[in-house]
Amino acid sequence: MAKAFFRLQKFLRRIQFLLFFLTAAYLMAGSLLLLQRTRLVLQQGSRGTPSNQALPVPEEMSRVGMTEPRSLQNPRLLVGTDALQEAALGQQHSPHWLMSRNSELRQLRRRWFHRFSSDQEPLQTAGLKAMKHTAEHKGTYMGCFTHDSRERTLKGAVFYDLRKMTVGHCQEACAERAYSYAGLAFGAECYCGNTLPAAAAKAEECSSECKGEKGSVCGGLNRLSVYSVEQLRAGARPLRRNVIYRGCFRAPENLTDTFPASLIQPNLTVEMCSEFCSKKEFPLAVIRGQECYCGYPTRRFSLREGTDGRRCSGSRNASSAAGGHYCLVYQTPVQDTRCTDRKFLTTKSKVFVALSSFPGAGNTWARHLIEHATGYYTGSYYFDGALYNKGFKGEKDHWRSRRTICVKTHESGKTEIEMFDSAILLIRNPYKSLMAEFNRKYAGHLGYATDRNWKSKEWPDFVNSYASWWASHVLEWLKYGKRLLVVHYEDLKQSLIPKLKEMVEFLNVTVTEDRLLCVENNRDGNFKRSGAKQKNFEPFTQEMKDLINRYILTVDEALKGRNFSGLPREYVPR
């Protein structure tokens, strides 16, 4: 009996030790998990500044004394202990705000995409009853209407904001341009116009909630929620008055056949003609004497060859043109919609094409031109929420999906280049590229860096790091690129249609002449910088110029060595 009791006591002691060990292990695991979650929250809280997503600093290249931007440039590289060690080593030679934040970018992309996906869930019928049409809105809700992106009824200005769109924001934007109606679609797209859509839809078909305003209806799939626009208060000046003067052009032989709408008005002014054409929803207002014509750029009237402004008599506000052979042309706020429809490729592309450039070389502008010319979205090797929110829907698509016509990239390593079957290599004056990228880092896609930014120590560090990257980017693509089309930003800007035709043909897409003319009419897109630009501003020291000029000569020689035309003479040192 005593022996059995002793065995039982020994067994219970073992159980006590086991329970103690399990309890200690459980507490340690819980503590580690709590510390990990706390660290993650702190990391997420520290994000959100533009510097967190800054581009990397290239490492030194052994040949020609340039840089290799591969190692810290790719936000999709695996981020392990080695990558973190490389980043730490790079900080010894570069400003901390230039370092790549690979792991943070990947986590940010996952969190943002998860939030976007959850936002796309269809609203339940019960939730529709709670949606409001008039609270905090000005004007009247007109109803739900059908919407076709190709043949739009509201043909005025178009705006996108896939995160913060509200009914009030859309109404204000349309009111500033003196439109009568504001329509919202897909929860994030805003359309302006003066004519109410003819085809009404069922109220429940407008089921998309506004991205920036819970409980408000912002259209649906191919459906518009249309609101009337309340006129601006007295004293507020609509933007329509600020029409764009396109120049003096030779009038076509038969203006009535060329332009679908016309008006004859004694004492005709630019404001009268622009107002008339805007209400008719045409992007061009053409004035010859007392005659006003409205229409689009066409092969018969392409706006490519302007003439001396003195041939059009009087000032730009006058209504007469000498001899009736010339006419004044103005652009109204109405958007040319012949090239605004875009979509993803219906079948995966067999050729994987890159749109490669150094940062600040006009890649976003080139994407705008390509998308509107081909009708297909462009993709991106990275993720930029600001671009996605402004309508570049290929940003959220995986860069290797092959559902886009080409993929934006700033990469220049051998492995990254050889992933692509062909590439459009966009090159810009390094002086302009460096300034554009510096502006983007401090003021976003549309702003300008302040005088304080330019005079800080960050600017010379930026030039020393990025100037060599500009050269190495071109040299690496010339060395490893399989099939290249070299496009100079300056040539594209100067001869838009011919160069855009080359790019479209390289992408193996056939487009109509009218579509290209539409692109030319909408050439600036939504990413032209605005604000106080410093005049006669020279941020480059002589030492910086000497450095950049050496890289320019090296790249020019390399291009000619590959039987490409050299760099434009306007910035090649002589």
From TrEMBL:
Task: Write down a Pfam family by its short name.
Answer: Sulfotransfer_1
The answer to whether keyword Repeat applies is: yes
SMART domains tied to this protein:
WSC
State the UniProt keywords alphabetically: Repeat
**Would the keyword Transferase turn up in this protein's UniProt record?**
no
Q: For the WSC domain, which residue ranges apply?
A: 138-230, 242-339
Q: Which SUPFAM superfamilies match?
A: P-loop containing nucleoside triphosphate hydrolases (SSF52540)
The UniProt GO MF terms for this protein read: sulfotransferase activity
Q: Which family does it belong to?
A: Belongs to the WSCD family.
What protein name is recorded for this chain? WSCD1 protein
This protein's species is: Quiscalus mexicanus (Great-tailed grackle)
Give the gene name. Answer: Wscd1
